[in-house]
Design goal:
72% helix, two-stranded antiparallel ribbon, 8 helices, mainly alpha, single chain, 280 residues
């Protein structure tokens, strides 16, 4: 009997065969597939440490991120060089424009390590979607977005309970000033919107942006290859159009990678700010 992951993969393969055009089976155009987000295991198959291509990309980006900041901050000088200046610009951007701007200097410094980690983790994981040889974002599968959303959610709860230990949950679920009979309606809505929807939307917003971006890039560049090498005559001109669109969407994906990192870190700070608000 097949293990659950193998059964899941078999179902995905069957679904993909139903959706793939006949031309693709005959060596023609091969469009993007959801199976690209479920690559084969390449290391330690059959163990709890099994790694596929996306997991290797994540580990590579974490190692690169640690190395960059270790090197950039280990021998800091009063007159910084170019590399140190770049590191300081990135750190100051998060500190000034996200953490301290929303939380103030004191609370901004308290939560700065978390917000900075989230920003650069998301940025580095996102940008792999356009790096040749990697070609897929580390955030395009739910694991990393979910872990970061849980970290933001735990920080939100921690900040609220720490600042308002006796009233955080009460005021979040039973807002002051609401007639008591309306709590039957308001409390379930507040519970779902505050304690359920927030981590889900943080996760899905990031993941789906990366999934859609990857599928679009694969579509354009696969179409370019098809028109240039598998068609003849005037049809080759369509390849020029798909190549231009592919290049344009690559630049757009760079913008999306940075924007999603900013939005994720910003929303984390916003949720912490709401937890620290005096009305709690």
């Amino acid at each position: 009997m097949l293990h659950a992951p193998k059964q899941e993969k078999a179902l995905l393969l069957n679904a993909a065969h139903l959706l793939v055009p006949k031309a693709a089976e005959e060596g023609g155009f091969h469009g993007p597939s959801i199976l690209e987000f479920f690559p084969e295991i390449v290391l330690f198959e059959g163990t709890p440490f099994a790694l596929n291509r996306i997991m290797l990309i994540r580990l590579l980006m974490v190692a690169l991120l640690v190395a960059i900041f270790w090197i950039g901050t280990s021998r800091m000088k009063i007159v910084p060089g170019r590399f140190q200046t770049l590191i300081e610009m990135g750190l100051n951007f998060v500190r000034v424009n996200i953490a301290e701007d929303l939380l103030g200097k004191k609370d901004g410094q308290r939560f700065l390590p978390l917000i900075t980690t989230i920003f650069f983790m998301v940025l580095f994981m996102n940008i792999t979607g356009i790096i040749p040889g990697l070609n897929i974002a580390g955030t395009s599968v739910i694991g990393v977005p979910l872990v970061l959303a849980v970290a933001a959610y735990v920080a939100f709860i921690y900040a609220g309970v720490k600042k308002h230990p006796g009233s955080f949950f009460r005021n979040a679920l039973f807002p002051p000033g609401v007639p008591p009979f309306l709590y039957l309606i308001v409390t379930p809505i507040e519970f779902i919107s505050t304690f359920v929807i927030r981590p889900i939307t943080l996760t899905l917003r990031l993941m789906m942006n990366m999934v859609v971006g990857h599928l679009l890039l694969v579509l354009f560049f696969a179409a370019t290859q098809f028109f240039f090498f598998d068609t003849s005559g005037a049809f080759k001109l369509f390849g020029v159009g798909t190549l231009v669109f592919g290049f344009a969407f690559t630049l757009f994906e760079v913008l999306i990678a940075v924007l999603q990192a900013y939005i994720f870190a910003l929303l984390t700070a916003v949720y912490i700010q709401l937890a620290l608000a005096e009305e709690h």
